């Protein structure tokens, strides 16, 4: 691919059209009859959006994250005449509507609903339950980072926004994250990254997921198998993507930063037909950067067109296409060197930051594509159907150098990896929701099924020994082994896995105070790995696993804006290795979580707080168990236990916006084996993490439009390798700051990261030789311009 051609096209597009950042607002109201009595269970619908809700026993309803624009509001209920009126969403304050239903239609005047694009707080999400219910009544710990936070932090990848979530940490510079003490990593937990609640990660484990087309990021803590099947025991991350809008908007964003960072993005949306039934959105992005590390260069091109066709107020079809091309010298950063002292302790400051294990001869080329087709239909006020088909393909070609053995006399042996792989995921999801009553009980039923066919059609991997280098004076001239050098390890295979699942969920409400969530899912896995040539000398893995996944949640609201919840969650993950030569097949990995917590909305629901306590038991982890007859034998052990608590606070109060939180976690082994000793701390799992981000928007005439922000994050020490409990990465505290100035259609954003230039390590991969290194002090300057 000729990247320069795309750059020219992008710049041409950016110079002629620009797109406005999507504003979102909150609409709340109350529905009464002409006798001023509350109308419960009335249907409230925003036309052409698919957003709908029901009034509670007091007649109250609410919507959050409404895109700025013009909408039709429809309120209906059995025995009443449907009420319709027009709403305009514009930047500003929130509004509350008093609406009345009667037996005769009453035309209401146009209402302007005031919103703000600077809201940090998101109060509703349907990802955890597939129901659009408030987070306050969701029996699970969920945190949402809004588009306003992404903008203020100038976060362009998931890794850059991870520290804003309470208890979430990026372990290194690729797709490895820690949640509640568990490492989520794509090869092992393929579905921990979701898009709009659907399986199918667009990015490989070697990449930092890009946020060009992302409106908000959600963290659902704990096992979430009841809806999403397999996933990391610590939680799943869900990307909510930007959708086409009914009004034309155009803007462009330009950013510059340290280490030759450059980024340009254009976002265009609006109607394609005069009747506004066919809508589009086109997102285009390009960035390139180097690093404080030697021989680091990376380019990303991102294209995301999407289309929505509105058949009627009750039916719509959405098609979203994504293409991401990455070209890099190093596909991912293997970390920097760490010196082992003669007494067995470690010196984390001995080697300079810029030195890399990898070679300038390495390269990485990745092409990721996806297509998602979503059909929504509302049969009536009680019954809705959603059908989603998502297809993803990831093609990777890369070479890489990894450390082998220990550092001796400031030199290190290395291995050479050459890998080509072609991976895919085909996901079909269909679910229907139905609201009904049985006596005093209200039911919101969800019934659904999934079919996921995933794996790879090519997995061509070779490992060969490479040259030993001096760390301080490396000679890379002999890095690439000759073609006739025999590979010490070789794979050449394909793998196809079929997952069939079905689930049933019922949220039972007894009045407005007590809600019970009951879910049950059944999953069946059937997979086969097949050698493609004699180079693959392993017997192919076979995967056959099935089981039930229950979930029970209880929510009680002692007062209107405070809830107490308890939840019981389970999930099971098939083993990534079931090779019979290693002792397989093995029992599935199982996670069980018990959680108790409380949520509250304060100051007229402008601030939201969550407190939670949890325990996660994780069983059937594979570990080496060699015998004289089989040196490759593995065995499943009892597993680990993760216990902890979390507190988070988010919202906007007058001119202040805040995100803060604290997480405590203790993740240890439950038994002694070759994996480690009972009580050993798990790798990359700090006991304490805290985060704070505070922004103040000035309103004085002379400084109107100016925002000042500052943040801090703290991570306590963490074991870098389970097998060596003395390998402890030191604790660290990092400070950030930001300024922004908004004037009419322009917004200038300046961010500075790691103000004290703290030298710190984020985590380890698989040895004591290297660790993921945090970035030193750096900056970014961004300018955005909106046309309309």
From TrEMBL:
<keyword id="KW-0410">Iron transport</keyword>
<keyword id="KW-0732">Signal</keyword>
<keyword id="KW-0406">Ion transport</keyword>
<dbReference type="InterPro" id="IPR000531">
    <property type="entry name" value="Beta-barrel_TonB"/>
</dbReference>
<dbReference type="Pfam" id="PF13715">
    <property type="entry name" value="CarbopepD_reg_2"/>
</dbReference>
<feature type="signal peptide">
    <location>
        <begin position="1"/>
        <end position="20"/>
    </location>
</feature>
<keyword id="KW-0812">Transmembrane</keyword>
<dbReference type="InterPro" id="IPR008969">
    <property type="entry name" value="CarboxyPept-like_regulatory"/>
</dbReference>
<keyword id="KW-0408">Iron</keyword>
<keyword id="KW-0472">Membrane</keyword>
<dbReference type="InterPro" id="IPR036942">
    <property type="entry name" value="Beta-barrel_TonB_sf"/>
</dbReference>
<feature type="domain" description="TonB-dependent receptor-like beta-barrel">
    <location>
        <begin position="316"/>
        <end position="755"/>
    </location>
</feature>
<dbReference type="Pfam" id="PF00593">
    <property type="entry name" value="TonB_dep_Rec_b-barrel"/>
</dbReference>
<dbReference type="InterPro" id="IPR012910">
    <property type="entry name" value="Plug_dom"/>
</dbReference>
<dbReference type="Pfam" id="PF07715">
    <property type="entry name" value="Plug"/>
</dbReference>
<dbReference type="GO" id="GO:0009279">
    <property type="term" value="C:cell outer membrane"/>
</dbReference>
<dbReference type="GO" id="GO:0038023">
    <property type="term" value="F:signaling receptor activity"/>
</dbReference>
<keyword id="KW-0998">Cell outer membrane</keyword>
<comment type="similarity">
    <text>Belongs to the TonB-dependent receptor family.</text>
</comment>
<dbReference type="InterPro" id="IPR010105">
    <property type="entry name" value="TonB_sidphr_rcpt"/>
</dbReference>
<dbReference type="InterPro" id="IPR037066">
    <property type="entry name" value="Plug_dom_sf"/>
</dbReference>
<keyword id="KW-0798">TonB box</keyword>
<keyword id="KW-1134">Transmembrane beta strand</keyword>
<keyword id="KW-0813">Transport</keyword>
<feature type="domain" description="TonB-dependent receptor plug">
    <location>
        <begin position="135"/>
        <end position="236"/>
    </location>
</feature>
<dbReference type="GO" id="GO:0015344">
    <property type="term" value="F:siderophore uptake transmembrane transporter activity"/>
</dbReference>
<dbReference type="InterPro" id="IPR039426">
    <property type="entry name" value="TonB-dep_rcpt-like"/>
</dbReference>
<protein>
    <submittedName>
        <fullName>TonB-dependent receptor</fullName>
    </submittedName>
</protein>
<dbReference type="GO" id="GO:0015891">
    <property type="term" value="P:siderophore transport"/>
</dbReference>
<keyword id="KW-0675">Receptor</keyword>
């Amino acid at each position: 691919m000729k990247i320069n051609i795309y750059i020219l096209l992008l710049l041409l597009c950016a110079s002629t059209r620009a797109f406005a950042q999507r504003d979102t607002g909150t609409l709340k109201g109350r529905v009464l009859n002409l006798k001023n009595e509350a109308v419960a269970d009335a249907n409230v619908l925003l036309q052409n959006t698919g957003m709908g809700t029901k009034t509670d026993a007091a007649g109250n309803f609410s919507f959050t994250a409404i895109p700025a624009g013009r909408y039709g509001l429809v309120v209906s209920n059995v025995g009443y005449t449907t009420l319709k009126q027009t709403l305009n969403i514009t930047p500003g304050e929130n509004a509350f509507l008093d609406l009345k239903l009667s037996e005769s239609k009453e035309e209401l005047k146009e209402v302007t609903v005031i919103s703000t694009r600077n809201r940090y707080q998101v109060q509703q999400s349907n990802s955890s339950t597939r129901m659009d219910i408030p987070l306050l009544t969701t029996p699970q710990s969920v945190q949402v980072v809004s588009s306003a936070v992404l903008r203020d932090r100038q976060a362009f990848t998931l890794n850059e926004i991870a520290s804003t979530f309470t208890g979430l940490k990026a372990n290194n510079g690729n797709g490895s994250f820690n949640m509640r003490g568990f490492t989520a990593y794509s090869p092992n937990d393929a579905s921990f990254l979701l898009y709009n609640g659907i399986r199918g990660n667009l990015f490989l484990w070697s990449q930092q997921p890009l946020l060009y087309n992302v409106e908000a990021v959600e963290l659902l803590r704990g096992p979430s198998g009841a809806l999403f099947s397999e996933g990391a025991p610590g939680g799943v991350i869900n990307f909510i993507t930007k959708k086409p809008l009914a009004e034309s908007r155009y803007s462009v964003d330009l950013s510059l930063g340290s280490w030759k960072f450059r980024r340009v993005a254009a976002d265009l949306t609006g109607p394609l037909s005069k009747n506004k039934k066919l809508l589009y959105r086109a997102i285009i992005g390009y960035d390139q950067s180097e690093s404080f590390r030697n021989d680091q260069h990376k380019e990303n091109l991102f294209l995301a067109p999407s289309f929505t066709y509105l058949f009627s107020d009750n039916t719509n079809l959405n098609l979203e296409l994504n293409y991401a091309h990455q070209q890099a010298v190093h596909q991912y950063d293997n970390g920097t060197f760490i010196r082992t002292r003669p007494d067995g302790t470690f010196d984390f400051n001995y080697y300079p930051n810029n030195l890399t294990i990898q070679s300038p001869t390495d390269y990485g080329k990745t092409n990721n594509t996806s297509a998602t087709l979503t059909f929504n239909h509302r049969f009536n006020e009680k019954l809705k159907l959603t059908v989603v088909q998502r297809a993803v393909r990831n093609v990777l070609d890369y070479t890489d150098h990894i450390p082998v053995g220990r550092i001796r006399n400031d030199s290190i042996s290395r291995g050479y990896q050459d890998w080509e792989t072609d991976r895919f995921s085909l996901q079909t999801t269909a679910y229907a929701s139905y609201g009904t009553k049985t006596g005093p009980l209200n039911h919101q039923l969800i019934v659904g099924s999934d079919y996921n066919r995933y794996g790879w059609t090519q997995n061509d991997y070779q490992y060969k020994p490479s040259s030993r280098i001096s760390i301080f004076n490396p000679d890379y001239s002999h890095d690439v082994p000759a073609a006739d050098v025999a590979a010490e390890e070789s794979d050449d295979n394909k793998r196809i896995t079929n997952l069939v699942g079905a689930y049933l969920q019922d949220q039972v409400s007894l009045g407005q105070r007590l809600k019970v969530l009951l879910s049950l899912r059944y999953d069946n896995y059937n997979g086969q790995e097949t050698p493609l040539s004699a180079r693959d000398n392993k017997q192919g893995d076979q995967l056959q696993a099935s089981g039930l996944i229950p979930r029970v949640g209880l929510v009680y609201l002692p007062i209107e804006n405070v809830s107490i919840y308890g939840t019981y969650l389970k999930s099971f993950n098939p083993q990534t290795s079931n090779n019979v030569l290693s002792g397989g097949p093995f029992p599935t990995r199982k996670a069980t979580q018990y959680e108790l917590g409380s949520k509250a909305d304060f100051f007229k629901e402008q601030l939201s707080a969550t407190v939670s306590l949890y325990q996660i038991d994780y069983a059937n982890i594979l570990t080496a168990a060699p015998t004289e007859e089989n040196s490759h034998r593995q065995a499943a052990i009892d597993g680990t236990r993760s216990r902890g608590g979390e507190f988070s606070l988010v919202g906007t109060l007058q001119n202040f916006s805040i995100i803060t939180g604290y997480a405590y976690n203790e993740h240890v082994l439950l038994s002694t084996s070759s994996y480690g000793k009972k009580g050993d701390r798990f790798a990359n799992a700090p006991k304490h993490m805290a985060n704070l981000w505070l922004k103040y928007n000035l309103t004085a005439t002379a400084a109107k439009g100016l925002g000042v922000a500052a943040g801090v994050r703290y991570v306590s020490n963490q074991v870098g390798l389970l097998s060596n409990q003395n390998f402890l990465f030191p604790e660290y505290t990092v400070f950030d700051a930001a300024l922004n100035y908004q004037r009419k259609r322009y917004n200038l954003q300046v961010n500075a990261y790691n103000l004290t230039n703290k030298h710190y390590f984020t985590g380890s991969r698989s040895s004591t030789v290297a660790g993921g290194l945090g970035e030193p002090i750096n900056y970014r300057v961004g300018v955005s311009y909106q046309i309309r």
